[in-house]
Amino acid sequence: VLFRSSAMRDQLLAGADCDVLVLSQILIDELVKTGHVQAQSVRPVGLIQTGLAVAKGHPKPSIQSESDLRQAFSRASVIYTSDPDRSTAGAHFKKMLIRLGLMDEVAARWKTYSTGAKAMQAMAQEAIAGAIGGTQVTEIMFTQGVELIGTLPQPFELTTTYTAAINTRARFAKQAQVLIDLMTSPGRAALRSQVGFS
Q: Residue 193: exposed, middle, or buried by beta-carbon count in 10 A (0-12, 13-18, 19+)?
């Protein structure tokens, strides 16, 4: 299974062996057009919001408004996100910092990683007082040692639709379809919610 990012798309295009892809709707649509996934297999998995986190046990700043968000980033000792040149969430945080007028102020404290998951892992391991990190809520919820503060407030909310599909070169297409049907079935809605899908 290839999951969730443009880097995964690039691995598929480079010939990676996989049967099921779970990527953003935009990437799946692109792969349908280029003939890399089976159009009839496409199923929506759910929506994932982008949020902020702190290391476990650390104080959680308020992020309910634009003013709160500006204060939280301005006071943060370190900011952890994915690379703005390699990920949607990272690019979104860069635009947000620019819009908040904080880019120059926080540039020296902003640490970026190839994925949001790696950014969260680094924040958990370093456990620096006053640090905050941002990525999709699923990556926050899956990382031991960090705690979700909440999702980004308007007008900075970022929600991405994720979709499952079968590779046109799948070796086990029937089993892949069974997996997709299980992941996307109404009976699994509560489970999807538990891991961050809405």
A: exposed
**DSSP letter for each residue of 125-176:** HH--TT-EEEEEHHHHHTSTTEEEEEEPPTTS--EEEEEEEEBTT-SSHHHH
What does the alpha-carbon distance between residue 47 and residue 14 come to, in Å, rounded to a whole number? 27
Q: Identify the CA nearest to 92 among candidates 159, 162, 4, 47.
A: 159
65-76 pLDDT per residue, tens: 999 999 999 999
DSSP 80: E
Arithmetic mean of pLDDT, 119-148: 96
For the entire predicted model, the pTM comes to: 0.81
Greatest distance between any 2 Cα atoms in the chain: 53
Neighbours of 105 (CB within 10 A): 13
Query: ∠133-138-142 over CA atoms, to 5°?
Result: 85
> What's the mean pLDDT in 71-90?
93
3-state secondary structure of 79: strand
36 vs 170: CA distance, rounded Å: 10
Helices (H) and strands (E) in the chain, counts: 9, 8
Which tokens sit at 122?
A: 């680094």
- Give the C-alpha separation, 150 to 31, whole Å: 32
Confidence label for 32 from pLDDT (cuts 50, 70 and 90): very high
d(CA 34, CA 168): 11
